[in-house]
Fold:
Amino acid sequence: MPTTSIIRPHAETEYAAELKALAKADDRPRPPGWLLSPWAVVTYLMGGKAGKLDIEPKYFGSRRLMEIAVATLATDRALLLLGVPGTAKTWISEHLAAAISGDSTLLVQGTAGINEDALRYGWNYARLIAEGPSEKALVPSPVLTAMRAGKIARVEELTRIPADVQDALITLLSEKLLPVPELNTEIQAVRGFNLIATANDRDKGVNELSAALRRRFNTVVLPLPASLDEEIHIVQNRVAALGRALELPPEAAPLQEIRRLVTIFRELRSGKTEDGREKIKSPTATLSTAEAISVIHQGQSLAVHFGNGALSAPDLAAGLSGAVVKDPGTDKTVWAEYLETIVKKREGWQDLYRACKELDV
Structure:
């Protein structure tokens, strides 16, 4: 299938030119099994130059945090990216795997119903019944595939996985091997193998990591954007990138509307206005940067397909209520109060206030 028809290509496909240019220009030492040096991986994440090619930043935040994350993966310790939803944990893990291994697809999505097979291996039961336990009947997990190939495996939402299943990773991370008692053998990891897990402690259904498992990880906490301008820049950048993939024109997301949305999210998150003069109630919603990008995207689509082509207050209002009001019992009151005490009185925001009120929110 042509790449142009894929909604969201894998990082190693979408940024293949950047990775190739970095590999060509990279003259620094590379850990065994790595396609790039740690320095080049951080350049790929943070942006810079590779020869004459400009490398697009993938992460807007502390360079030191990315250096710590990359340095961890060059050791025998696994990496745990921890943070509230929307702090780019999945995005970073994908790009780390793409830059280090050239393959970001070795992924396990953590859920409450997952079992050990997803982290270790399963069996082709038809073959198992016909031939008995054998290497050909074994179905490797993405983690086992990464061990054999010397690549980076990814485990998303580690804390959503039940604790007894989480602990299946302990031997794997400690000894870099996976016992297969049914075949009376073990599979040892090839150099270059490591694991990146992501987790947050804000979702319902979180399972704490055992002390034994947590010791196998080096934890890097990803913060929310530090300033209003930084968060606006992140939203603007990601909206533009995703808009290109969906063929939405960049002028459909004016900076003014992005600024208003990010301001609202930051104020409701922090419980005070940006100038610090007024305290406000916070809803139960996370109101992450990722959700801000989604609201802008929805507004873009409304403006392009049902409006004049440029996102305006009515388009922004259409996604705001759904983003803020997650618990109708409490959030609706918080949102209504914020509209009356902040939005209504803010200079130049009366159009947004009217649009929100017309939607009966």
